[in-house]
Amino acid sequence: MSAPGSLLITDVRPYGEGDPVDILIVDGVITEIGPDLTAPAAVERIAGRNSVLLPGFVDMHTHLREPGREDTETIASGSAAAALGGYTAVFAMANTDPVADNSTVTDNVYRTGREVGLVDVHPVGAVTVGLQGKQLAEMGMMAAGAAKVKMFSDDGKCVDDPLLMRRALEYAKGLDVLIAQHAEEPRLTVGALAHDGPTASRLGLAGWPRAAEESIVVRDALLARDAGTRVHICHASTEGTVELVKWAKAQGISITAEVTPHHLLLTDARLETYDPVNKVNPPLREERDNLALRRGLADGTIDCVATDHAPHAAQEKCCEFSVARPGMLGLETALSIVVETMVNTGLLDWRGVAKVMSERPAQIVGLTDQGRPIAVGEPANLTVVDAEASWTVTADDLASLSRNTPYADMTLPATIRATVLRGAVTAYEGSVRR
Ligand SMILES: NC(=O)N[C@@H](CC(=O)O)C(=O)O
Ligand SMILES: [Zn+2]
Ligand SMILES: [Zn+2]
């Protein structure tokens, strides 16, 4: 990674609007924006070549597998994947081994992220001890530690006990932190392998009904209402979730929701081959869910895109569908899938992409230095997007240590030309800068 000195990014269009300008960055802060800026010869330059300039992306939902499964992802490899995907901040979920349910783990994740330095790694703390759903974790200790944990989640598992969830929301309110719920009523998903629909029936796979998600979404909306606090819904996957979140927002309930790129694009039709790469929680659903999620993201009902980047070892993904681990990679392909499903369909312009990939996630979780406007005086956390380019995904070329991308061999629109974290170039033309 280059030192955070001075940087000149030439020939870029902020938010894809207007004529190309140059951006001068000094000591991590944008100091000048205008056509044909001059800078001393020693200043590092990035040629934007008429690219779109966006605020650096913020991922509220990433699984880095450190500590515990460093064979599938480390904080370093996941940070590289994030930088290449245009991210300047990621939230690393708590389902590590050991679980991030105490400040020793969360502070270690945070410090390792700083040492790697490619992206701001914010650890997510567990809501319950060991993700067991029995006893609240020491959220206060984690929030007060070096990592200043801002978000808590048992993701991978649902906090299904309603009384415990109520207490968690009350505790979170006092700490001014966010609870993010993996909305899954486990008594409705016993043995479930696929979306409960015609495809699962035909393939003989036990179904995961939409109601398993939606019943928790509405329950948690009501609990947040009563607690007078906010709640965030991870990986919304159904048309009904969009309707329920819209209803809850209309009631003045402080609820937010994210959608993954794969739930915007892919359906359970993918399961016909029984390829475990398509196994994910919540499952890929039907086209009407994709379309409702896209509309919800466009109209602000769904607040943001989060990757749910979930690396798994080859041996955990090549076996029989029923025993394969759920989850798919997402960091390096997210922007392309958002362009394919939201920009190329006319649902979002580049301002809208900045909102759902950067501004809203930063606001929801309370980051004050990310998701900022591209303006003089603002921190230089930026992503340079070549909107005209396309690329073919080669699993072996990904920076992630895992290979479980559902987009292998697909040609996708848009590439990340460069990512800039506080004025330092972290990724440039497909390579990370260390
Ligand atoms: N999404 C997944 O299918 N898997 C995630 C857990 C989760 O996000 O629920 C994982 O940690 O592998
Ligand atoms: Zn989850
Ligand atoms: Zn997850």
Describe this structure in words.
InterPro entries: DHOase, DHOase/Allantoinase_Hydrolase, DHOase_cat, Dihydroorotase_CS, Metal-dep_hydrolase_composite, Metal_Hydrolase. Keywords: Hydrolase, Metal-binding, Pyrimidine biosynthesis, Zinc. GO terms for molecular function: allantoinase activity; dihydroorotase activity; zinc ion binding. Zn(2+) 1 binds at residues 61, 63, 155, 308. Catalyzes the reversible cyclization of carbamoyl aspartate to dihydroorotate. Strands 3-2-1-4-15-16-17-18 form an 8-stranded mixed beta sheet. It is globular. It starts with 5 loop residues before the first strand and ends with a strand. It has helices spanning 75-84, 103-116, 139-144, 162-175, 198-203, 210-227, 239-250, 261-265, 287-299, 334-343, 350-365, and strands spanning 6-14, 21-26, 29-34, 44-55, 57-62, 87-92, 120-123, 151-152, 178-181, 194-195, 207-208, 231-233, 255-259, 304-305, 382-392, 411-421, 424-428, 431-432. 58% of the residues are buried. It folds into 2 domains: 6-53 and 378-432, Urease, subunit C, domain 1 (Roll), CATH 2.30.40.10; 56-365, TIM Barrel (Alpha-Beta Barrel). Strand 8, helix 4 and strand 9 (178-181) form a beta-alpha-beta unit. The chain has 434 residues and is α/β, with parallel strands linked by helices.
